[in-house]
Design brief:
It is built from 13 helices and 11 strands. By secondary structure, it is an alpha/beta fold. The chain folds into 2 domains: 168 residues, D-Maltodextrin-Binding Protein, domain 2 (3-Layer(aba) Sandwich), CATH 3.40.190.150; 116 residues, D-Maltodextrin-Binding Protein, domain 2 (3-Layer(aba) Sandwich). Helix 7 links the parallel strand 6 and strand 7. The radius of gyration is 25 Å and the shape is globular. The N terminus is likely disordered.
C-alpha cells in the first residue's frame, strides 16, 4: 500500500506544480492583482451636491460595474480644492486613487498662489480629459434686472448688488469675474464659498447679489425660474440655456472655457494609467451620462492622458500673461 500512496502523492505534487506554473503564466503578479482588488477612491475637492459631484457619482456607478470593484467618492472640500489635491498626491500610485479636478488647480493656481504644497506636473500623472465647461453669471429672479447691461448699471448705483459668490478664491469663476470687472469698469465684492451648493443657497436667501458658477450648476435654476442667468463665458450659447447670451454678444470681449481632468498620483505605471483611462472613458461616453451632460451644459470628452497633458501645458502658458497683467494674487 505504501508504494501506491507514494505514487498518488507524487502525482498530486506534479499536478499542483503544473497548476502553479500555469497560474504564473495567465494571472497578473500578486502586487498588481491586489491593487486591482483594492477599493478605488475618487477624490473630489468640493462638497456633495455640486454639478461636478453629481457627474463624479454617475461615473463612479459605471466604474463599479465595469471594473467589478468597490468605488468610493471621497469629498474633501477646503482651500478652493487644494485640500483634496494635497491629500491625493500622497495616495498610493497603484491605481487605487484618482483625483477629479477642475483645471484651475492645475493651471491657474500655480500663477496665483505664492506657494502650493503640490506640483501639478511632478506630483500627478494625467489619466483622462473628462470634459469642458463654461461659467455663467446669475442673479435671483426678483432682482430688478433683465440683462447684463442692466446689472452693471445696478452695481454702479447700488454697491450691495455687487456681492457675488464663487466656489473659492482663484477658481475659474472668480478669475473670470476679475477679468469682467476690468472690461465693464466696475468693482465687485467677492464672497468665496466651499462649494456651489453653498453659493446657490446664499443667493436664494439674498445674502449675496449674484453668483458665478458652472453652467451645470446654474442652468437648472435658470430654467426653473429661480435664478436669472445674464451671460455665459463660452464662445457660443449653451444648449441648456439657449436664451442666455455670451459675454461677447453683450459687448464685452472676454471669453472663458474650462475643463475637468482625472489624475492619479505620480509614479503610476503605464498599465495602471491605461486601465483607469479605459474605464473612465467608457463611463464618460455612455449614452445616459452624455444625455445628462448635454442638458447640464457640459461637453464630456473622455479622451486620453496625452490630451489632458496637452491641455494642461497649453493653459499653464495661456493664463500666465493674463494673470500677470491683472496683478491678481491669491492669499495663501
Amino acid at each position: 500500500m505504501a508504494p501506491k500512496r507514494t505514487g498518488t502523492l507524487a502525482r498530486r505534487t506534479v499536478l499542483k506544480a503544473t497548476g502553479a506554473a500555469a497560474s504564473s503564466v495567465f494571472l497578473p503578479s500578486m502586487p498588481a492583482l491586489r491593487a486591482q482588488e483594492k477599493q478605488l477612491t475618487i477624490i473630489l475637492g468640493f462638497p456633495a451636491g455640486a454639478g461636478f459631484d453629481v457627474l463624479t457619482r454617475m461615473i463612479a456607478e459605471k466604474l463599479r460595474a465595469s471594473m467589478n470593484r468597490a468605488v468610493l467618492v471621497e469629498n474633501r472640500p477646503g482651500a478652493s480644492g487644494r485640500t483634496a489635491v494635497d491629500y491625493a498626491k500622497s495616495q498610493p500610485a497603484d491605481g487605487s486613487a484618482v483625483l477629479f479636478v477642475p483645471m484651475s488647480l492645475m493651471t491657474i493656481f500655480p500663477h496665483t498662489y505664492r506657494s502650493l504644497r503640490y506640483d501639478p506636473i511632478k506630483d500627478f500623472a494625467p489619466v483622462t480629459h473628462l470634459g469642458s465647461f463654461s461659467v455663467a453669471l446669475a442673479v435671483r429672479s426678483e432682482t430688478p434686472v433683465k440683462t447684463l447691461k442692466e446689472y452693471i448699471l445696478l452695481v454702479k448705483k447700488d454697491p450691495s448688488a455687487s456681492t457675488y459668490g464663487s466656489t473659492g478664491v482663484g477658481t475659474p469663476s472668480h478669475f473670470f469675474i476679475t477679468i469682467f470687472e476690468r472690461a465693464a469698469g466696475i468693482t465687485m465684492t467677492h464672497v468665496p464659498h466651499k462649494g456651489s451648493a453653498d453659493v446657490l443657497n446664499n443667493l436664494l436667501g439674498g445674502h449675496i447679489g449674484a453668483a458665478i458658477l458652472t453652467v451645470a450648476d446654474i442652468s437648472p435654476q435658470h430654467n426653473s425660474g429661480t435664478f436669472r442667468a445674464l451671460a455665459v463665458s463660452g464662445a457660443k450659447r449653451e444648449p441648456s440655456m439657449p436664451d442666455v447670451p455670451t459675454f461677447r454678444e453683450v459687448g464685452y470681449d472676454i471669453e472663458g472655457s474650462f475643463w475637468y481632468g482625472a489624475y492619479t498620483p505620480a509614479g503610476a505605471s503605464a498599465d495602471v494609467v491605461a486601465r483607469l483611462n479605459t474605464h473612465l472613458s467608457e463611463a464618460v461616453r455612455s449614452p445616459d451620462i452624455q444625455a445628462w451632460a448635454l442638458k447640464s451644459g457640459l461637453n464630456l470628452t473622455g479622451t486620453g492622458p496625452d490630451t489632458l497633458a496637452a491641455a494642461q501645458k497649453t493653459d499653464l502658458e495661456r493664463w500666465r500673461p493674463v494673470i500677470q497683467a491683472s496683478g491678481f494674487k491669491a492669499e495663501d
